[in-house]
């Protein structure tokens, strides 16, 4: 995820979408803390409004980083075993 600002802008456009928002993470090869924090805030805000977020093709690097930063619940991801 090259730019946190671009990610934030894209997510804000979908924040109040009535339907389920899918996040396809299949292309993620590396993820930084700031990107995970933006994604976590987005997922939490949607859940707080009763709106679903679905993760698709989440790579180990994203799940591992989320686990390390204790963000799996905030993101709505399952921790890797």
Characterization of this structure:
Helix content is 49%, strand content 10%. By secondary structure, it is mainly alpha-helical. A two-stranded parallel sheet has the order 1-2. Strand 1, helix 2 and strand 2 form a beta-alpha-beta unit. Helix 1 packs parallel to helix 2. The radius of gyration is 12 Å and the shape is globular. The mean pLDDT is 92.
Give a quick rundown of the structure.
The chain has 81 residues and is mainly α. The protein has helices spanning 4-14, 33-48, 60-68, 72-75, and strands at 21-24, 53-56.
Keywords, please?
81 residues; globular; two-stranded parallel ribbon; mainly alpha; 49% helix
Q: Which helices and strands appear, and what pairs or packs with what?
A:
Layout: H1 4-14, E1 21-24, H2 33-48, E2 53-56, H3 60-68, H4 72-75
Parallel strand pairs: 1-2
Tell me the total number of β-strands.
2
Strand order, largest beta sheet: 1-2
Note the total helix count: 4
Radius of gyration (CA) equals 12 Å
Biggest sheet, open or closed, and with what strands and sense?
2 strands, parallel
End-to-end Cα distance: 25 Å
Structural class: mainly alpha
Q: What is the quaternary state of this protein? A: single chain
Question: Which descriptor suits the 3D outline?
Answer: globular
Strand content: 5-15%
Low-confidence runs of at least 5 consecutive residues: none
Please state the average pLDDT score. Answer: 92
Helix fraction, binned, reads 40-55%
Order of helices and strands: HEHEHH
